[in-house]
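Why does residue order matter? Because the sequence determines the fold. Keep that principle in mind as you read this record.
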Amino acid sequence: MSISPILDRENSGVAVSPVDWVNGAPVRIVAITAIQKVRHTMIFDPMYFVFLIPGMAFVMFAQWKVTSTFKKFSNVPTNRKMTGAQVAEEILRSNGIYDVPVERVPGQLSDHYDPRSRTLRLSEPVYGSTSVAAVGVAAHEVGHALQHAQGYAPLKLRSTIVPVANIGNMLGPIMVIAGVLIGLTGLAWLGVIVFAAGTAFALVTLPVEFNASSRAMAQLTNIGVVDRTEYGQARKVLNAAALTYVAGFAAALLNLMYYVLLVTGMGRRNE
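Structure:
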């Protein structure tokens, strides 16, 4: 349920040995100067704001929505008085999963399922709380554990592309910047393709999260943790959380579209 910053991907640094030289200047200086020039260009490029502002606004709204919704229903206790941890353990047991421990972790909305260690981690406001919000979030994270146990294909795909997506988010903008500044259209397009891996990750995340929420609501009904009113309230919490992933994808897609526009314009200028 934690939200990764989407709009900070262009703040990547440059790790180049100072003994490498290009055109009489250290590569590190050349690369950093290039990035500074592109940032300066983007600041005064009206199209940059056309793509940046909607994505940023959507991300900020989604962040506000999930925080306010979680806070609201954190003050609404369930009739069963089961904590988030107890609900998670009950759902796991009812599905025959006994090798996934439920751990407490610091932070708020830092809840997650770790498929590598097969561990479910719940934040302080969720682990020991009996609120509707805590129950909903805990059940959602168990939904990921159920996906893992059943070999849910989109979850496998997302786990597979994580390394590529991380590299793409870091190197993609640098490659685009370098290609634009030195006039290498091929390098710039390669940067766009590499950066697109991060956008693909955000896209694949959507069905994974939506499916986990659907599983969560079904499990809460099956084990009788919530009544009809609490079901609707828990659904609101998970819908608000899902919006953050939609916003993340939208922001990543708009970022990608700007890079495509930038490189396309570069190609036209070179004709």
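Residues 2-38 have pLDDT under 50 and may be disordered.
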